[in-house]
Amino acid sequence: MDSQYKIIHPVKYLQDHLAQDVRPDGRQFLSFRSISVNISSITHADSSAIFKIGNTTIVCGIKAELAAPKAESPEYGYIVPNIELPPLCSPKFRPGPPSDQAQVVVKLIENILRNSAAIDLKDLCVFKGKLVWVLYCDLMCINYDGSIIDACIGALTATLNTLTLPETLYNIETGSVSVNYTKRLKFPIKALPVSVSFAIFNDQLLIADPTDDEESLCLGRLTIVMNEDKICCIHKPGGIPISQDLFLRSLTKCKKRAELIRSLIDAAVSTIKQEHLNE
Amino acid sequence: MPVDQRRINGPEVSVPYHIYSDFDEKSDKVKHDFSKRSDKRTNSEMRKIFLKIGIVSQAKGSAYIEMGNTKVVCSVFDPRELSNKNGYCTQGEIYCEFKFAPFSCQKRKIHQQNAEEKQYSLILQRTLEPAVCLHEFPNFQVDVYVMVLDNAGSSLAAAIMAASTALANAGVPMFGLVTASTIGIYGNHYLMDPTDTEEAICNTQPDKEDDFNHGIITLASLPQHNQISEVFLIGSIDTNTIKQATEMLTAANKDICPVLQQCLVKTIMKLHNEKK
Amino acid sequence: MDTSEETSQSEYILRPMNCELNQLSMPDGSAMLMQGNTAVIAGIYGPVEAKPQKMIYDKASIEVSYSPIKGPTKVDDRMTEMYIKETCEAAIIVTFHPASAICINVQELEDSGGMLGCTINAACLALINAGIPMKFTFAAVNCMIQEDNEDIILDPDSIQLQEAKAEFTFAFDSMDKNVICCYTTGCFTETEFLKAMDRCKQASQYVFDFYRNLVKKYANVI
């Protein structure tokens, strides 16, 4: 009966639940789904992570390549984030070039990376003006069930945190490059931004960590990205107007959640380090 | 190539670091030792298979398969009505899309499907068509999407098995399960379920003049009916070797079948127990 | 600064705004807006028949296209489009025009800071000009926090923005002055954010007054 009701009248199905102070998946309004992080499971990537929030699954892999830097910024490397929302992850998506949504998400991720100053592009320099690293960060959505930005940021920071690059030398006289395959250096990451999403419904009702169903029916969305004790992005593209009080409530919720996610990523990263030591 | 304005673009040219020489100029072209495989398997031994069903909650049916380091995800969606371009179709259709994730191979893949991926998509479609009761859903199309997350060899075989399990999980009427396995041939060596480095070796011509045997065979079959649905061969192999390889692969496919069946049954039992 | 003071006072808060409606003859409504040296032109077609794949049976679909001054549209512009789209969607009574489309086209003319805010305001004026039924009007205000002295500067120009630690763009509704959209760059603390929001909220009244005067001026023309 439950599933038929959901198909026939999804709006009322959700409203009826919310009226009873409960969400369709049994959560309370401001409770979050569980998270899991899995690091370095993809052997062909330079570093990788699988980040899950409830059902939402994002796989992130970084491939490092070498290129000449731009003439106007000879010391700066490149970081190229890209998100793929393939038809595999949800029936909403069709094959073809990136949808508007994918483009907005990738732009947002680029903004967050820049604003949080998590990466110093100078660290990607091999030889000034001649050779720099290019980090292709590909985020692949495997299961699309809402709060996609949170999962992407989580996967990306976890991946960047475990990234190592082989020691590389550029010979200025011959212009030749040699790579030390046995010695890999840890890539320094300066900050660990954490994103938390909310959905807003009628009468300033705030819901944390929305699922896909909730996201598609909500009247407004809000994403806050915390960077330690600072905020590095508040993204509310539109939708229902919200009061200052709601911002305050979401910020307090966000801080607690950010701490949890940060400790989870740290724990996952440290297990990897432990393994390296044991080897 | 025109710049794709729908993505964030990096530099125009960049090269993977693997092409550069090592610090201590040792030529690392060590001759491959066929008596010993890197993962301590015997030549006729397959890697362990891990299969999980229903990992994509948004899809009708889905499967995740791991064979060694090869990792493949597949999802199947509800049938969609075919656009009536060629009139009414008495048979249903299967549409397959095979894609390597950008970070899945030694060399980074671009986002558009390349020729290899398009070819694999068609092979996948041909493999699954004989196993699905297409007459049960006339004028409808079932979409099958396959994504290789990590390609450590035999990814086509893994994709075929993931797809057939996902189809079964989605409740698409089928005659039987499709299982597939790969064999690499180099001279008189047969390597079951080759890894990506072994695949690369098998794609090269042996040094010996009289022996031209080298290549990779992927064979998909319906073990429950003793039928072969697709053979895909690259390389140059004499007929006797092909015959022997086919026998080995068919036997292997038979062995794998219970793994798929058990996994499906387990999932159903779990659902059943939950309902209770 | 208190908004209850003279508007002449408020003019120091924001850069001078100039607007001309009905500049374009083809669209149903259009507005050319200048905020300081930042200028955009917006045109509205609608409600028109929606494309079959974009049609929503119980409400109007809103399509936004934003064209930068040079070059093809890029990933960056998709973000601007999304902000304009979702902000307008909140204000327009979409259920009045089911299964139809409202197309908002915005062309950048010159960017010297506060582009997003200017496009949102131009879109609002064009919507008023086109006579699209709206629940409320909306006004966007841009502000920044200076790098060294942590002062909040309202509606900065591109020269001032070079010294910005963080930049904010807020859009407020005309009824309760609640936040419709919020876009930030840079790192900042919670108090800074709330302070910036408060300042922008006060300044938004100036934009609403500007709307009112403008519509009054054009009322006999329409």
UniProtKB/TrEMBL annotation, chain A:
A GO CC term?
A: cytoplasmic exosome (RNase complex)
Q: Name one GO biological process term.
A: exonucleolytic trimming to generate mature 3'-end of 5.8S rRNA from tricistronic rRNA transcript (SSU-rRNA, 5.8S rRNA, LSU-rRNA)
Location of the Exoribonuclease phosphorolytic domain: 32-165, 192-249
SUPFAM superfamilies found in the cross-reference section: Ribonuclease PH domain 2-like, Ribosomal protein S5 domain 2-like
Q: Name one Pfam family in it.
A: RNase_PH
CDD domains from the xrefs?
Answer: RNase_PH_RRP43
- Has the keyword Nucleus been applied to this entry? yes
Q: Which UniProt keywords apply?
A: Cytoplasm, Exosome, Nucleus, RNA-binding, rRNA processing
**Belongs to which family?**
Belongs to the RNase PH family.
Q: Which PANTHER family does the record cross-reference, listed alphabetically?
A: EXOSOME COMPLEX COMPONENT RRP43, EXOSOME COMPLEX EXONUCLEASE RIBOSOMAL RNA PROCESSING PROTEIN
Q: What is this protein called?
A: Ribosomal RNA-processing protein 43
**Lineage of this protein's species?**
Eukaryota, Metazoa, Ecdysozoa, Arthropoda, Hexapoda
Automatic annotation (TrEMBL), chain B:
Q: Tell me the keywords, alphabetical order.
A: Cytoplasm, Exosome, Nucleus, RNA-binding, rRNA processing
Domain of life of the source: Eukaryota
Q: Which organism is it from?
A: Melipona bicolor
The UniProt record lists the Exoribonuclease phosphorolytic domain at 45-173
Note the PANTHER family from the entry: EXOSOME COMPLEX COMPONENT, EXOSOME COMPLEX COMPONENT MTR3
Q: Which GO terms describe its molecular function?
A: RNA binding
Q: Tell me which Gene Ontology terms the entry assigns under biological process.
A: nuclear mRNA surveillance; poly(A)-dependent snoRNA 3'-end processing; rRNA catabolic process; rRNA processing; U4 snRNA 3'-end processing
Q: Which compartments does it reside in? A: Cytoplasm; Nucleus
Family per record: Belongs to the RNase PH family.
Q: Spell out the protein name for this chain.
A: Exoribonuclease phosphorolytic domain-containing protein
Organism lineage reads as: Eukaryota, Metazoa, Ecdysozoa, Arthropoda, Hexapoda
TrEMBL record, chain C:
Listed GO MF terms: RNA binding
Q: Which residues form the Exoribonuclease phosphorolytic domain?
A: 14-133
Name any one Pfam family assigned in the record: RNase_PH
- List where the protein spans the membrane: none
**Compartmental location:** Nucleus
Q: Which family does it belong to?
A: Belongs to the RNase PH family.
Q: Would you tell me the protein name for this molecule?
A: Exoribonuclease phosphorolytic domain-containing protein
Question: From what organism does this protein derive?
Answer: Melipona bicolor
